[in-house]
Amino acid sequence: MIKVAIMGCGTIGSGVYEVIENNQAVLQKELGEEIRVAKILDLRSFPGTPYEKLVVNDISLIVDDPEISIVVETMGGTKPAYQFVKSCLLAGKHVTTSNKALVAAHGTELLQIAREKNVNFFFEAAVGGGIPVIRNIGTGYAGQVIEEITGILNGTTNFILTKMDREGASFEDVLAEAQRLGYAEKDPSADVEGWDTCRKIAILSSLAMDGEVDFEEIETEGITKIDTADFAYARKMGTSIRLVGSMLREEDGFSVFVGPMMVGMDDPLYSVSGVFNGIVIRGNQLGVTMMYGSGAGKLPTASAVIADIVEIAKNPARNVPFGWHAGKLSPKPAGARLHRFLVRFDGADAAAAQKTAEALGAKAPVFPDGGAEFAVLTEALTKDELKEKLAAFPNVKKYIRAALNGIA
What we know:
The chain is α/β, with parallel strands linked by helices. It is 36% helix and 24% strand. The chain has three domains: 2-133 and 298-314, NAD(P)-binding Rossmann-like Domain (Rossmann fold), CATH 3.40.50; 142-293, Dihydrodipicolinate Reductase, domain 2 (2-Layer Sandwich), CATH 3.30.360.10; 337-402, Alpha-Beta Plaits (2-Layer Sandwich). Strand 5 (94-97), helix 5 and strand 6 (121-122) form a beta-alpha-beta unit. The N and C termini lie far apart (59 Å).
């Protein structure tokens, strides 16, 4: 029998228990032996639940139990998750986690400990929920040079932006609805300020570049400044706005950013709506592929954890080559990366607006349905170049990145 411990019995942890129990026959067929949850670490007691008698409050009862070979960490955050996971790895136990904050902050060290102890530290569920993006980057695209990863990696912000686009609702109103529906936390800053997406693209970039990409070095902007007028302009141009995390490999390094971006109807990410995630990956020989699905949620995320458990159970006595190696990689400034930009200006004079458009390499300005302003979709240029050009225009209101392709 394979014995598993779960650290943290919240939404994801209880989901892992549920999937193991409900899919026991499938798991036994896959592994050739029974797999059971032996202990659950939590400060709560969960009276009346099927796992009430499995709950323990002391991490040492897991670390020191020789019969437990696999530990699942679903606590979230880095304290005490980091120390608990490290203790389990040092004790020779395999660990799988859904905790992107832990992986982004301490993944390099924990991967190295796993290699030294000949165990595994897996984190399929940390990015993309039920989408197997980690495993695909690690093995599915073996032999490829991954040139670009651009994805919608946060379901909460995608829900908000989709509703703003389709219903013309304000950011504040849709955020309140997302909180009522349970898609957004009481404190939504990790989502709406882009920090969650930042940690996830840092993990994907580390895998693609085979070195530690520090999430704190990634230029990050959230969606709190996006308003209904931005979407009105986007619709006039046949586009929508998504919060993306993006890594681009270039000849002299790589760049990473998180921020709102206009995407056209021909862009694979245009159709990713609601709480779903979509991740586009470009390989040097493969071309472009896209993965789409539930980026969060109890059972989709738990299913990704189970996939890690199965992989570990099939390799109980060896460290499976996985992850990235030690050595910090610093991205280039994101301001040096080419984009087009939607720039909004105050003023309604048609002749002045046309001159502004021509100065920024645009065909023509776009006017809203009412209001004394206009917008221009620039030619391809870097953000640094854009800032230089905009210094000559005192009437600039704001600007948003736009994808290079698929936009009129």
